[in-house]
C-alpha cells in the first residue's frame, strides 16, 4: 500500500471509531518536552529558551514519546498534530500585575511535505519532532514585553498493524513553557 493511501486509511479509521474506542489521552510531563530554535541571522541554536529580538527560521519541539514500548515490533506510526505556540506578554513598565495576554505565534506541525499527516517507521523512531517558524517576538509583542513562550495542544499517534487487545491510537496532551530572556 502506498504512503498516501496509508495516511488516508489511518485518518479514515480515526474518524470512524466510536467515541468509546477512540484514543486514550495521556499527559506528557513538561520536563520531557524540549524546544530547539535556530536564529535566522547568526544560525545560533537556542535550547529551551528564546530571545525577543531574534527571528527563528526553524524551531523544533522534541517529544521523546514511548511509542515502541506501547506498540512493540515493526510498526508504522501515524502522527496527527493539533499543537500551537503562543507568546505570553506583559505590560511594559508595570510591576506586579498590569495587563497580560497570550498571543498566537505559530502552529507546530509535522516536518516535510504534509504538515498535518506523517508516517514514521518504528525502526528509525527515536523521538517525534514538530516544527515552526517564529517571527521576532518583540515585533509580535509590540509595546508589551515578551515573557514566556508556550506550546500546547494534542498529538494523536496511531499505529499499524494492530494486534488483538491493542489500542490503535493514543492522544498525548502537551503543555510546555519556555522562558524569553533579554540580552
String of helices and strands: HEEEEEHEEEEHEE
Strand content: over 45%
Note the total helix count: 3
Q: Structural class, from secondary structure content? A: mainly beta
- What does the overall shape look like? elongated
Beta strand count? 11
> In the residues, how many domains can be counted?
1
The overall pLDDT, averaged over residues, is 89
* Major sheet attributes: 7 strands, mixed
Percent helix: 10-25%
Signal peptide: 1-23
Protein name: DUF2808 domain-containing protein
Keywords: Signal
Keywords:
DUF2808 domain-containing protein, signal, 183 residues, 7-stranded mixed beta sheet, 4-stranded antiparallel beta sheet, 11 strands, mainly beta, 3 helices, 13% helix, elongated
Question: How would you explain this protein's 3D organization?
Answer:
By secondary structure, the protein is mainly β. The chain has one domain (26-180). 13% of the residues lie in helices and 47% in strands. The chain has helices at 3-16, 67-70, 137-141, and strands at 24-27, 34-39, 45-47, 49-50, 56-63, 76-90, 100-108, 118-121, 128-134, 145-160, 169-180. Strands 1, 4, 6, 7, 8, 10 and 11 form a seven-stranded mixed sheet that branches. A four-stranded antiparallel sheet has the order 3-2-5-9, with no helix packed on it. The radius of gyration is 18 Å and the shape is elongated. The protein starts with a helix and ends with a strand. Mean pLDDT is 89; it is low at 16-20. This is DUF2808 domain-containing protein. Residues 1-23 form the signal peptide. Keywords: Signal.
Amino acid at each position: 500500500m502506498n504512503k498516501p493511501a496509508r495516511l488516508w486509511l489511518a485518518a479514515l479509521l480515526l474518524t470512524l471509531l466510536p467515541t468509546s474506542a477512540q484514543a486514550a489521552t495521556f499527559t506528557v510531563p513538561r520536563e520531557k518536552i524540549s524546544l530547539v530554535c535556530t536564529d535566522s541571522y547568526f544560525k545560533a541554536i537556542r535550547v529551551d529558551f528564546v530571545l525577543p529580538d531574534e527571528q527563528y527560521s526553524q524551531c523544533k519541539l522534541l517529544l521523546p514519546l514511548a511509542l515502541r514500548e506501547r506498540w512493540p515490533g515493526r510498526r508504522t506510526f501515524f502522527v496527527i498534530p493539533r499543537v500551537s505556540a503562543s507568546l505570553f506578554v506583559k505590560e511594559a513598565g508595570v510591576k506586579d500585575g498590569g495587563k497580560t495576554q497570550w498571543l498566537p505565534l505559530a502552529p507546530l506541525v509535522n516536518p516535510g511535505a504534509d504538515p498535518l499527516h506523517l508516517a514514521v517507521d518504528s525502526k528509525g523512531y527515536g523521538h517525534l519532532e514538530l516544527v515552526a517558524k517564529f517571527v521576532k517576538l518583540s515585533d509580535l509583542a509590540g509595546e508589551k514585553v515578551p515573557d514566556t513562550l508556550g506550546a500546547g495542544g494534542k498529538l494523536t499517534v496511531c499505529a499499524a498493524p494492530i494486534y488483538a487487545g491493542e489500542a490503535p491510537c493514543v492522544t498525548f496532551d502537551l503543555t510546555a513553557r519556555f522562558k524569553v530572556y533579554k540580552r
